[in-house]
Design goal:
The chain is of the alpha+beta class. It folds into two domains: about 1-190 and about 375-550; about 200-280, Regulator of K+ conductance, C-terminal domain (Alpha-Beta Plaits, 2-Layer Sandwich), CATH 3.30.70.1450. It contains 20 helices and nine strands. The chain has helices at about 1-5, 15-30, 45-55, 60-120, 125-135, 140-150, 155-185, 220-225, 265-270, 315-320, 355-365, 365-370, 375-390, 405-420, 430-455, 460-465, 465-490, 495-505, 510-520, 525-550, and strands at about 200-210, 230-235, 240, 255-260, 270-275, 295-300, 320-330, 330-335, 345-350. A five-stranded antiparallel β-sheet has the order 3-2-4-1-5. It has a four-stranded antiparallel β-sheet with strand order 6-9-7-8, with helices on one face. Helix 2 (about 15-30) crosses helix 15 and helix 14 (about 405-420) packs antiparallel against helix 20. About 50% of the residues are buried.
Length: about 550
């Protein structure tokens, strides 16, 4: 039976795979258990790793370092690749204000950690781990470990501090959401399902009553206005048509306009009377709106379309169709002429059935083709991300250079490749399931190694007097900043509670709290806000944790 016990005890490549796989399996299984409606998900792998390390299970240190680093790199790069396509568009659609508030949470939490470190005389090397656990930010912990190693200091206490404060970091954000909702949110702050409209696209109907545009072509109207919009349908004398840029508008025309929600009032001044009909409900059967036209979603699957501007295809002029919206990575985009198409985009096409079939041949719509793995951008991105993370950045007044590290470099490169790759005709598309697989694999590897490394001294640390102090400090760092900034967002900026909850979860890199927010708040405002602020806050925490260590050690 020695061969069997050696699989778990004798250091080897096989033993490392067996141990990490076993920790991941048990952790993921236990992570599905809900307590008071809260489950830790893949994060439970971290605690199973701690338990395994506490009972003496180890793997080869070189194997441990490789698996931990590779898991972290894979997780953050896949995350950046997924959010990249919609990242900059979400910033332009009111996202700057959300990012600003999330940045304030990061700043307040970091300053609070410094103040508590000075007040309680907890060394910053220990407080770094407490801060990472309180903000449930494992990539920041990876950056802290790397910086401490560069400074030739022991990073074990930082790992233990993260392990002690992580559970309350998860629960603290959920408690913060509950507290803000009970104490500060008004009924009007809670988004209602019937008023929820996805992201930055809004559909509205107007009756042309402005004599200034009567008789003018749509091209002329667009040129004299700074607004971005698409007219998808035009009704005149009971007949519907697909307008082109040369179509002239006449008084009394009914037009269906797709635009940003912020531009609706200005469009009313441009066109005239707004028809009070809600075209944004999810249950609209667009094919039943009129019998002459059809509406269909077509997915871009031909690689040669990747990176081309929508206007360069001349689909409207050639086939008499209209493209009203573009779905990309969970975000709806306005189909403006200069929009760069990407592989995997889903285009809402309106027109006659035969014309739609012709457009389908141009764009592809071979969804099965998207299921084929496209790993070249992944490996290219990993290489470039590590190169970016290794560049030393000199900051005046600080002796050691700052590096983006294993966490910061790959996530920034992932966002950039996901956003700008198609412009240089790099096919960056991966299916959502494939991306989630990469992220889950990377995160489970990282958490298993992290827990295994911290487990050997975990129990003795929590039993020491400073153990309970660390837990209390971590909860303060979690709870106070998000509640204070949430109150500012609700009262000063009048942001709805759904987006406020998303800011709270995204600034803390807390998908478990986001899951709670999605289940208790109608609509998708929490998820949209989370995706908007998450990459920026992740990057800031990776940088800030290194600055804190260099300034206060």
């Amino acid at each position: 039976m020695h061969w069997f016990t050696d699989l778990f005890i004798q250091h080897s490549a096989i033993q490392a795979v067996v141990v990490l796989s076993l920790i991941s399996v048990i952790g993921m299984a236990l992570g599905k258990i809900k307590l008071l409606g809260i489950s830790l998900g893949v994060t439970f792998v971290f605690f199973v790793g701690i338990a395994a390390g506490h009972f003496g299970l180890t793997i080869d240190p070189a194997m441990l370092a490789f698996a931990e680093s590779f898991g972290l790199i894979l997780f953050v790069y896949a995350l950046g690749l997924q959010v990249g396509p919609g990242f900059f568009s979400s910033l332009r659609s009111g996202g700057i204000r959300l990012v600003g508030l999330a940045t304030l949470i990061v700043a307040v939490g970091s300053l609070l950690a410094v103040g508590l470190s000075l007040a309680t005389r907890v060394p910053m090397s220990d407080m770094a781990g407490i801060l990472c656990g309180a903000t449930t930010n494992t990539p920041a912990l990876g950056a802290a470990q790397q910086m401490l190693s560069q400074m030739q200091l022991d990073s074990n206490n930082a790992t233990l501090g993260c392990a002690l404060t992580y559970p309350l970091g998860v629960v603290g954000v959920i408690l913060g959401i509950i507290a803000v909702r009970k104490l500060f949110a008004r009924p009007t702050d809670i988004p209602r399902p019937d008023t929820e409209h996805r992201n930055n696209v809004f559909i509205v109907e107007f009756k042309v009553t402005n004599p200034g545009i009567a008789g003018r072509s749509i091209r002329e109207v667009v040129q004299c206005s700074h607004l971005h919009f698409v007219i998808s349908r035009l009704w005149r004398a009971g007949r519907v048509s697909i307008p082109t840029s040369d179509s002239a508008l006449e008084a009394g025309d009914l037009i269906l306009v797709i635009a940003s929600p912020d531009d609706v009032q200005a469009l009313g001044q441009l066109f005239g009377e707004q028809i009070q009909k809600d075209w944004n409900t999810r249950d609209i059967d667009w094919n039943a709106v009129d019998s002459q036209l059809s509406s269909q979603s077509i997915v871009v699957t031909r690689p040669e379309i990747n990176g081309r501007r929508l206007s360069s295809l001349r689909l409207r002029n050639l086939y008499g169709i209209n493209i009203s919206r573009v779905h990309r990575s969970g975000v709806q985009l306005l189909a403006t002429p200069d929009l760069m198409l990407q592989l995997g985009d889903s285009l809402t096409v309106v027109g006659e059935e035969q014309a739609i079939r012709n457009v389908e041949k141009i764009l592809g719509n071979a969804v099965r083709r998207l299921d084929e793995p496209n790993l070249i951008p992944v490996f290219i991105g990993l290489i470039l991300g590590l190169l970016l993370g290794s560049i030393p950045l000199a900051i005046p007044g600080i002796g050691l250079p700052v590096k983006l590290g294993l966490a910061g470099g790959p996530i920034i490169l992932g966002i950039l490749i996901g956003t700008f790759g198609p412009r240089i005709h790099i096919v960056t598309y991966t299916t959502l399931s494939a991306n989630l697989m990469l992220r889950a694999l990377g995160l489970s590897l990282y958490l298993a190694c992290l827990g295994l490394d911290a487990g050997a001294h975990f129990v003795e640390t929590i039993m020491r007097p400073e153990g309970m102090l660390w837990v209390a400090l971590g909860f303060l760092i979690t709870f106070l900043p998000i509640v204070a900034v949430a109150l500012i967002a609700l009262r000063l900026f009048r942001i709805d509670f759904g987006r406020v909850a998303g800011i709270m979860c995204g600034s803390m890199a807390n998908p478990m709290a986001l899951n709670y927010a999605n289940e208790t708040i109608p609509g998708d405002h929490p998820a949209v806000a989370y995706a908007t602020v998450y990459p920026v806050c992740m990057f800031l925490r990776v940088i800030i944790i290194q600055l804190l260590l260099m300034c206060f050690l």
